[in-house]
Amino acid sequence: MDLGLLYSAGKDSSLAALALDSFYDVTLVTATFGITDDWKHAERTAETTAFDFRTLELNPDIANAAVEQLRTDGFPRNAIQSVHLHALEQLASEEFAAIADGTRRDDRVPSVSRAQAQSLEDRHGVDYIAPLSGFGRGAVDRLVSAHLDVESGPSENISKADYEAELRALLAERDGKAAVSEIFPDHEQTYVTGFNSP
Amino acid sequence: MDLGLLYSAGKDSSLAALALDSFYDVTLVTATFGITDDWKHAERTAETTAFDFRTLELNPDIANAAVEQLRTDGFPRNAIQSVHLHALEQLASEEFAAIADGTRRDDRVPSVSRAQAQSLEDRHGVDYIAPLSGFGRGAVDRLVSAHLDVESGPSENISKADYEAELRALLAERDGKAAVSEIFPDHEQTYVTGFNSP
User: How far is B184 from chain A (nearest CA, A)?
Assistant: First the structure.
């Protein structure tokens, strides 16, 4: 069964791909507003694996709304959440029988409630799977060490392909780089350079 | 890494075993109060797979308390939930680095909250994994069809090895068979007779 997995080349979505591999024909799908070419970082990682890869076009209006939200809130949580839900809606409209993401048990954001999952499934006639939602932080870290090759560092040095990169770029273009470092806390990011298949 | 999975030979815990197989050395662990020999149904299924099998002894006081709860409530939900949490505590006290169960996204019971999961992990120094907690009913049904051989029918005809079987037996012994059919709704059960490895 064909499954489209929202893919950023971060550790969570990479581990999700491995978790789903025995049950589904997984395609790694990187969502992009077309603001930057950061999706190519995900393509580069995908090329080192046996998974298919494609991009998914997001609506630029959602990026603009997300940047307004960032300015209003002063923190990224709500903006990231609304972009993630939009990406799932777009993915659910494609031809996959099942869709998935890398959300974990301990994630505050993005998070998809049971009701949101059920609604997505009912409206689009797809299965929505969150294969890591029953895994805590410790388990994920141990599995990442065992199964993935990663680079890690602060957000501005790590080139992955999540929504954050495009929102940061759009915000920097409008309000300057200082606005970006004010709104996005300096947290450690990981970029997966390759998989050690389990 | 060694993982002990609470195993009943039902479809959920069987699918959980397949979901975990690429990441862990999974042992199928069937919990028993020693009231009946129903655990042997799980052993029989386990013998058709490549997974190790063992039993886990539960505290008979918990079975007695669960039967009291059944009598008070008139429905099985709370009794099953408390037995499941007890079984996870017992399993977490064993030598496994990680423990797991077959709880699904749409299960009302048993269910393990994030806070309960975190507490179990912190107190016992184990990872607790619920590999199906990000899978809805439709996805589980489709994967069961593809990967498991199942028999299904009403509870009294299907011989699996869940807590319900032992609680039913204990209640029947005390209050007679009529009490059992009053408290336990007549629902369809599944017994897995074999795995088609993915």
Answer: 26
